[in-house]
Amino acid sequence: MTTTTDPQAPGAAPAGPVHRTGPAEKAGYAAAVFILLVGGALFTTPILNWLSGPAITIVCVAVAGWIADRRRKSRTGSGEETR
Questions:
Q1: How many CA atoms does the CB half-sphere of 24 hold within 13 Å?
Q2: From CA 78, how far away is CA 72, in angstroms rounded?
C-alpha cells in the first residue's frame, strides 16, 4: 500500500529541485565578471588561474545571495536575529 502526501502540507518535501537564480545571483555573477576582468587586467597571474577564478565566482554569488536574504528578512521583519 502506498501513501501520498499533500504537496501543500506543512513540512512536505518540495516536488522538485529548488532553483535559485534571481536578481541577487545575477548581480553576484556581474560582480564576479567585473572582478575577474579588472583583476585579470591588473594582476594577471594571481587572479586568472584555475583556483582563484572559480573561487571568486562562488564567493560573489554566495555573498550576493546572503545579502539579499538579509535584506529580505529585514524588510519583512521575519528572522530570529535582533540587533
A1: 14
A2: 9
CA dihedral sign of residues 47, 52, 58, 64: negative
Between CA 77 and CA 82 the distance in angstroms is 10
pLDDT, tens digit, 9 for 90 and up, residues 22-61: 889 999 999 999 999 998 889 888 888 889 889 999 999 9
- What is the number of other CB atoms lying within 10 angstroms of the CB of residue 48? 15
Grid coordinates representing 14 are: 518540495
Phi, psi at 52, each rounded to 5°: -70, -40
C-alpha cell at 42: 591588473
